[in-house]
Amino acid sequence: MYLLYLDDSGSAKNVSDKEVTLGGLCCYEQTPFFLSNKLDDLASEVWPDDPIGLEFRGSSIFGGKEYWRRIKKDARLETYKKALSFLEQSTAIRLFGAVIDRAAVSPEDPIEYGFEQLASRFDRYLIRIHKKGYHQRGLIILDKSIYETSIQRLAREFRDEGHRWGRKLVNLSDVPLFVDSKATRMVQYADMIAYALRRYYTNHEQEYFNIISKKFDNEGGVIHGLVHSTFYASGCQCIACLQKQNVSL
Ligand SMILES: [Zn+2]
């Protein structure tokens, strides 16, 4: 089975944010064990007194919140980059991300839009590997903090009208699962991916996104795993928009 862990950058519930940013990673069921260990080891280096209690969340690391409050800013940012580099170094994962300008998809709900885009791209990834003779089902795992957004309704629909989703997403095993990010390092990775996207698209800081940019699902030079919905796609220099511009030339 393939797992897709997703989280938002904290933007989903904050309607004053211009964009909604979702990010995450997909991997085979055996991979979380190894990747989680790496984050556990990093937590032991940074906070030896209580590594398990140290939760990796982009906004907490940047803002120096909770445990991170007691760690100097330079050390916090280095730790964040190190965690992103684990993703960059792994050959067993693919990243997915959606940056959705609320106004660009109006009147559609931007969170629903972004989630459906990623669920469908995950499904298509499973179809691609199926065509290579490798049949795997998929499961989406989300941070429960976004359960209170419109994704909750989508998940309910998924359960109640499975046939509707089943026609669209043929390879998913079950309804999306919601878990506590404290309990799984993999959702913490998803949060850090979403946050790197946010720093790039909202704050125009490339440094963090650049560490992981090549890991967004791609094949044959075509990026499938990154969606940027904006009014200004023709002027945007991000890898997703540049690809669209090249296709339409
Ligand atoms: Zn773009």
Provide keyphrases for this structure:
249 residues; alpha/beta; Nucleotidyltransferase, domain 5; 6-stranded mixed β-sheet; two-stranded antiparallel sheet; 10 helices; 8 strands; 47% helix; 17% strand; globular; binds zinc ion
Task: Compute the average pLDDT.
Answer: 89
Strand order of the largest sheet: 5-4-1-2-3-8
Indicate the low-confidence ranges by residue numbers: none
Q: Kindly report the CATH topology.
A: Nucleotidyltransferase, domain 5
Helical content class: 40-55%
In CATH terms, what is the architecture? 2-Layer Sandwich
What does this structure look like?
With 249 residues, the protein is of the alpha/beta class. The chain has a single domain (2-248), classed as Ribonuclease H-like superfamily/Ribonuclease H (Nucleotidyltransferase, domain 5). The protein is built from 10 helices and 8 strands. The protein has helices at residues 31-46, 58-63, 73-89, 102-105, 110-131, 151-160, 162-168, 185-201, 206-212, 239-248, and strands at 2-8, 19-28, 93-101, 138-143, 177-179, 218-219, 222-223, 226-229. A 6-stranded mixed β-sheet has the order 5-4-1-2-3-8, sandwiched between helices. The protein has a two-stranded antiparallel ribbon with strand order 6-7. The longest helix is centred in the middle third of the chain and has 22 residues, at 110-131. It starts with a strand and ends with a helix. The mean pLDDT is 89. Residues 228, 230, 233, 236, 238, 240-241 line the site of zinc ion. Zinc ion (ZN) is lined by residues 228, 230, 233, 236, 238, 240-241.
